[in-house]
């Protein structure tokens, strides 16, 4: 049984986005473009959280990115205050196994869409 947890509020997604973006700089070719797109998609999670809660997503995400760039990786979207906060202090956690499965499923779905897109773009066979 898996008992590990990760901090919620979008902080782990922002941390993953930073790691992917750092690795994409070291990667050559089209793979780097795909990595950048994946990092942008991960950065959207905190914005979506803030937006769904009715808060100013742009303001919250820019503050959150600033905190993360300073090494405060435990900061996330705080639903109580409408700003950012320490997810450890608020006790906001998510199941590691659930988060891993969500990321795996999302990347598999994106890969399937790209494969279907390639098939649709192919010229018809005689």
Structure description:
With 126 residues, the chain is mainly alpha-helical. The protein has 5 helices and 4 strands; from the N terminus they run βαααββαβα. The strands form 2 sheets. It has a two-stranded antiparallel ribbon. Strands 2-3 form a two-stranded antiparallel ribbon. Strand 2 and strand 3 form a beta hairpin. It is globular.
Q: What Rg do the Cα atoms give?
A: 17 Å
Number of strands: 4
Proportion in helices = 55-70%
Q: How many individual helices?
A: 5
Largest sheet: 2 strands, antiparallel
Q: Which strand order does the major sheet show?
A: 1-4
Strand pairing plus helix content: what structural class?
A: mainly alpha
Alpha carbon gap, first and last residue: 54 Å
- Mean pLDDT, to the nearest integer, reads 89
Give the key terms:
two-stranded antiparallel sheet; two-stranded antiparallel ribbon; mainly alpha
Summed up, what is this model?
This protein has 126 residues and is mainly α. It has 5 helices and 4 strands.
Write the layout of secondary structure elements.
Elements: E1 5-7, H1 11-25, H2 30-52, H3 57-69, E2 75-78, E3 83-86, H4 87-90, E4 93-95, H5 96-121
Antiparallel strand pairs: 1-4, 2-3
Helix pairs in contact: 1-2, 2-3
